[in-house]
Structure formats: C-alpha cells, structure tokens
UniProtKB/TrEMBL annotation:
GO terms for molecular function: metal ion binding. It comes from the Bacteria. This is Mycothiol-dependent maleylpyruvate isomerase metal-binding domain-containing protein. It comes from Corynebacterium kalinowskii. Residues 12-54 form the Mycothiol-dependent maleylpyruvate isomerase metal-binding domain. It holds the Pfam family MDMPI_N.
Amino acid sequence: MPTLGRMSFSIAERARLVQSLLSVGPDAPTLCEGWTAHHLAAHLLIRERKLLATAGMFVPPLSGITDRAMASQLGRPFEDVVQEWGRGPRGAWKLIDKKVNVAEHFVHHEDVRRPQGMEARGFSTPEIAELYAALRTASAAFGQSSAVVELWPHGQLPIYAGDRHAAERVQIHGDVGELLLYTFGRPVLKLDFVGNEELVRRRSV
C-alpha cells in the first residue's frame, strides 16, 4: 500500500476498511447497533452516492428514501457493495473527501474491527495529525456539557470544548484515536478521566 506521503488518511483508511470488510464477511457484527458489516457497507455507499437517501439519515420525512436505498444495497452481493464504495467518491465528494471522511472512515473501520477482538492500531505522525484535526472538529459534540471538557491526546496540545465558563473541568487523556471514538459515542479500550465524567455530554456528530 502506498505511504501516507502519497495519499490522504481518508484514502488510505478507505482501502484498509475495504480489506477488513471483505475479511470479516457480510454477517459480521459491528459496533453500530443492529448493523452487520453488510449494513455498514451499504450505509457508506449510500452516503456518497445517493443524495436524498443521505438526507434521510438526518431529516425524518425523508427516512423512507433511506430505508429503500438500504434495502436495495442489502439485496446486492456484499462484495459488490464493498468494492463499489472502495473505488472512491464521485463528483463533489472528491473535493471534500480529505476533510470530511477522516473521522467517518476511522470510526467505521473500528466499528468493524473491535467486535472481532482486534486491538487499537498505531499510526504514523502524519496520520495522527489528520486524526487530531478531525478530533478538533468533532469536539463540538461536547457543547452541551456542564463543564469545561479538555481532550488531551497523547503528544498533542489539548482541545477545549463544553461550557467554557463552567467552574468544573473534566480532563480526558488518551490516544487520539480512542478520544475520537469516545467523541462519537463508541466504547473505547483505555481513556483516563480527571474530574466528574457525569458532567460530560455528547450529542450526535
């Protein structure tokens, strides 16, 4: 596989996720409740190829379009869905892939890996930098917290979120990938908390 110096994290992680999906098979469980690997592959493809169906993920009146699109992809061979998504985005998605898909690809890759008992991965310095940038954006999820939320990725400057004027502070220390998974509401392998974790609130990001 080419090094990150020749491709963005989102492109490299797409290729790695394709391999993981094909390895575990269509019926493998994921961290997304009620979803198999086939459901996850269908979601990834629809998100980039079906505009109205994508909108239906966030706009309830359009949810029926999303449901029909999902049913259509689930009716296709799993390998075809995975390989089509793996060929990469089209149109405008190509322009925003490097920015919007870092967290999407990483989190969903771990959604596949973790139920299979796979350990946390190590990343190169450039990859960590891209994950850190994604964490800065995703930290808006802590906006409803009743404390100052300090995210302390190992080897990086802290990221501040939550109620900036609150008297209470909660520090969360760990690898940048684990912090990103926590931000997206996923179970994590190891994070260290200093302060009252109950003051931390996360909304969907």
